[in-house]
Amino acid sequence: MAKLNKGHYHCIECDTLYEAAVVKLSRQRCPACGNPPSGRGLLGVGKDYKVLSASDHHGVSEDTKDINEAAVMAQKKKNHGKVKRTKRKSKKSSKVIAFITLWLVLMLATVLIVKHFSSADDQAVAQFEVEQEREKKRIAYEEQMKRAIIKQALPECQQAITDFFMASSPAAKAQRVYQGAKLSGIMSRYYRNNPIFSSTRSMIQIMWAETLEFEGKLVIGAICRNSLNENFEVIFVKSKNEWKIDWLSLVRFNPTPWALFQIGEDGDEGVFRLYMRVRDSNEDLDQKQMSIVFYKPNIFTKGDYSELASPSLSVKLASPIGSKILNMADREESVEDEMGYPTGELDPPGYHRVRVRVKLHKRKKSAPDMELLEIIDDHWYGIDQVDQGTELESAP
To answer: Model's pTM, two decimal places?
Structure first.
């Protein structure tokens, strides 16, 4: 029986198949990894085992070693490549999935946000359009109601003003006046000093009319024209189902005649319905004050306005009265007063309607001057004043 000198071994550590001399198993070493082919753990080989070099492999040909080493290296490269490719693919796939997921989330969030704000904008626009349409309908309804009121009131108002001018006595005139019973005494004194209107002025036509904004009252402002082609203003107030005349504004009533007040005594005070104009003077403005003058307004107008100015009054720009006058000057271009009456179309440019309290000063050897104590109103209406009794208290 022939003696076996070489054998083929399979290394369970690195999976290498090799040919080597037949020796004790404990001495056998894998040419690829240097471990016993049966595994170092099975034979009790520790970490410090001795790896045999090529010179220790007696009887193993160089060709066999080269083949075995090449096979081992190929196997290691193959295994190594597979592991790395798997990890790269796994990592790459995870990143792609995470990116796609994030993109989808962002897109969904964007769509939801756009839809939310788009819906909110659509609702806001729709609500605005509804409110705008509602406001148009409200304005149209109010305008329709105003037209209906004026259409119904005009014949009564024209009859009231005609009867007023046709009346032969103050008592008869008071029948057509708002709060006429309260004003009858004042009217009697007024007409003693002023001639009764001529009958030619009783032929009247209302040229324009509009409702005015008086709280708690139905009021119509009108521009009338008589047979002399004179224009004049009338304010009508609905009182106990009748249209009455605001007499105080009609005659521009002053408790004391304006002309008589200017020649009065030192220290006299009075309340007047006047035109006020701010005089342009750079010198006055440099001295931080303004110069103003007053004019007596006419009842009837025909053509250009022409009245004499009062002596000039000085008012400090920084005073409360000065601030009020400046505010009035800023509104000079306004064509309506706060009640809706078209004063800007009727008054001379730069003239302001005021009800003021002034004081007369007389000094020896100098011309008299006046002091503006108060701007009571920026209009001539007498409705509220006669209701409160203020005109009656100041009347002589």
So the answer is: 0.66
